[in-house]
Amino acid sequence: MRRTVSFPIIAFVVDRDSDKELMEWTEKLNDRIAQLQSFHTEQGTALCIRPNRGWAEAKMEISFRKQKKVWFLVQSLPMSEDGAIETFCMNMLQEKHEFLVEEARNFVSFLLREENSSRLGKCLATRREKIKAPLAVFFAVYTPERTFNETKQILTSIPWEEYEGLRKFVHVFKKFQNE
């Protein structure tokens, strides 16, 4: 006899990039649950999960005339504003590192001002990068040694020979080129 395993608690923790994206994701989840035709409410209607509204109770058909109670949760981070896990982390870090969190956010905001944005080039070009930037700045200041160690791979991938400052630096060694 084949044994099936079921999970009575199913939780989805998702980024809240925007209310629209969160609702679209939740609608896709509800559509998928409806396709399975295995989950129903106490009233027998199809289960419909709403984000950030707590646990939704459902009955799951596990065999002929046999049901099991299942709980679903869709929780976004942050819960009440657009953002990603990085926004949630910054909000938590602000409890103990208010000054540094605010200054990291201010620095990124300064860079993104309209008068500065043209000088950024390809930096912070996407919404995703803009959301991640304050947390990256926070960690660069909070743990510069670790942050630098993590960026070694990035540093070695940069074509430094294309930079005038390096060419000037290397030029002083040309004296010894033929020796």
What does this structure look like?
The chain is elongated and about 90 Å long. The protein has helices spanning 19-36, 85-93, 98-112, 114-117, 127-142, 144-150, 152-157, 164-171; strands at residues 9-15, 39-40, 56-63, 66-77. Helices cover 46% and strands 16% of the residues. It has a four-stranded mixed beta sheet with strand order 1-4-3-2. The protein is built from eight helices and four strands. The protein folds into two domains: 9-77, no CATH class; 85-170, no CATH class. The longest helix is centred in the first third of the chain and has 18 residues, at 19-36. It has 179 residues and is an alpha+beta fold. The relative contact order is 0.10. The model has no long low-confidence stretch (mean pLDDT 83). Helix 2 runs parallel beside helix 5 (127-142). The chain starts with 8 loop residues before the first strand and ends in an 8-residue tail after the last helix. A hairpin with a 2-residue loop joins strand 3 and strand 4 (66-77).
Radius of gyration: 26 Å
When the domains are counted, the total is: 2
Question: How many strands, which pairing sense, and closed or not: the largest β-sheet?
Answer: 4 strands, mixed
Topology as H/E string?
Answer: EHEEEHHHHHHH
Count of alpha/pi helices: 8
Strand content: 15-25%
How many extended strands? 4
Q: List unreliable stretches of 5+ residues.
A: none
Outline, from the CA principal axes? elongated
Structural class: alpha+beta
